[in-house]
Amino acid sequence: MNFKPKDFLKIIIVLSLIGKLLFVFIFINLNDLEYYEYGDIANNLYQGHGYSLLHEIDKDGNNLNRSVEPHISAYMPPGYVFYLYPFFAISDTVVRNLLIIFSQILISCLLIFLVYKFTRECFSETSALIAAAITGFLPEFVFASTHIQITLFYHIGIVALLLQLYKLNSHKINFNTLIVIGIIFGSLILFRSEVLLFATIIIIYLINKRDFKESAIIMGIIILIILPWQVRNYVVFDKIIPITTSSGLNLYRGHNPYDIGLWGDDSLFARIRSVRNEKDFEVKMNDIYLESAFTSIKENPDKEIVYPFIKLYNLWIINTSDNRTFNIIYLIPWIVFLLFSVYGLFKSGSWKVHKFSYLYFIFFSIVAIIFFALPRYQTMMKIALVPFAAAGIEMLYYKVKNIIK
Predict the structure, then answer these.
(1) 7, 90, 108, 144: which has the fewest Cβ within 10 Å?
(2) In this model, does residue 363 exceed pLDDT 50?
(3) Mean pLDDT, the chain, whole residue set
(4) CA 34 to CA 97: how far, in whole Å?
């Protein structure tokens, strides 16, 4: 029997789907799935409390203070919240959690296909199948698709976006391509607010090329997509909120007098508690964190010199402050993956061909420097490395094969 490449792709997708389902039934407690802020907001929305959230500051010790009403929120952008929202119509917790995870596993099959398609267009059929296998079986990608996390949707958005951006390498830019780029960018921003920076980088690149019309189209579509969220935030907070009210916290966690990732000290928490009953609590909390971050930057220049290198190390190598990164199921695949990625990047180096991938890596590095880099941020970033890792594996295989001959 002669297998065609698409037959191998189907096998990879089916085996990945089965493997993820087995992972869910063996390792995940569907009675007690962590929803994080996204699920909490979706639940509050379904319960009639509006787009609202209770924060850690609303807890007395380890117990939730039930007398505190959820705060009007813009803490998380609405994309993933709206995805989760319909599932809360299901009262049975296990059934609801199973359907959420199963839906994400099905969506992860689309991710495998998109990575395959992108890698095939950039490199070769063989590299594309290797990339599909990496996407389908890399432990952290399996984990991301089987938990309440935004990573899977971010991955799909980034790969779909890169597929379209690479089309801009053509001398003749298709109008429909610009429309799709704008739609993907706008949608991604509603899932992860920092994507606005990547959109800005791409628009600046196009303006620098004097592609004014193209940049205006993309910018206009992005504005149209995120405008309803902006209007909503202005109406409820009476203040312009760029995308979220969590930027101050994230900036502080990346710039504080103590250590990267810290949430605050007693005096800062006391200031936040003092405004806990305010209608615009999240705005005031965000302002407190922003002020504290800028104060720390001003007063600790020595730390600010060192912090960027630590953050880049955390992003591109390993986050030594998080014990989870030393788990061999995470660490060994990452080391191997990184080595092949570096080899693939080096051997296929071409600004003309891969500039949009390079700009993406630059964007993510800038975000890490401005804020910080958790292990899951590394997972989000590395989806764009998969094609290069796959190409690196193929190129190294043929190099070794030729040497042996």
Answers:
(1) 7
(2) yes
(3) 94
(4) 10
Task: In whole angstroms, give the CA distance from residue 53 to residue 76.
Answer: 9
- Within 10 A of 176 (CB to CB), how many other CB atoms are there? 10
Cβ–Cβ < 8 Å for 287, 278 = no
The region of weakest confidence among 49-53, 59-63, 135-139, 214-218 is: 59-63
DSSP secondary structure string, 63-89? EE-TTSPPEE--SS-SHHHHHHGGGGG
CB distance 356 to 206 below 8 Å: no
Among 329, 350, 310, 334, which Cα is nearest to 382's?
334
Taking alpha carbons only, the member of 240, 262, 251 closest to residue 293 is: 251
DSSP state for residue 190 in the 8-state scheme? T
Beta bridge partners of 72: 52
Tokens of 201: 């980088």
CA gap 380, 134 in Å, rounded: 14
Residue 125: CA count within 13 A, CB half-sphere: 6
CA distance 320 to 159: 28
Of residues 198, 129, 179, 120, the one with CA closest to residue 361:
198
pLDDT of residue 61 exceeding 70: no
Q: Which residue has the tokens 């705060």?
A: 71
Could you tell me the two tokens for 309?
A: 């290198």
Q: How many CA atoms, within 13 angstroms, populate the side-chain half-sphere of residue 320? A: 6
Least confident of 162-176, 289-303, 357-371: 162-176
**Sign (positive or negative) of CA dihedral 374, 377, 195, 171:** positive
pLDDT at 1 over 80: no
Supply 147's token pair.
Answer: 């938990």
Mean pLDDT of 338-355: 96
- pLDDT tens-digit map of 283-322: 999 999 999 999 999 999 999 999 999 999 999 999 988 8
Both tokens of 151, joined, read 């990573």
Strand partners, 259: none
**Residues 6 or more apart in contact with residue 104 via CB below 8 angstroms:** 145, 146, 152
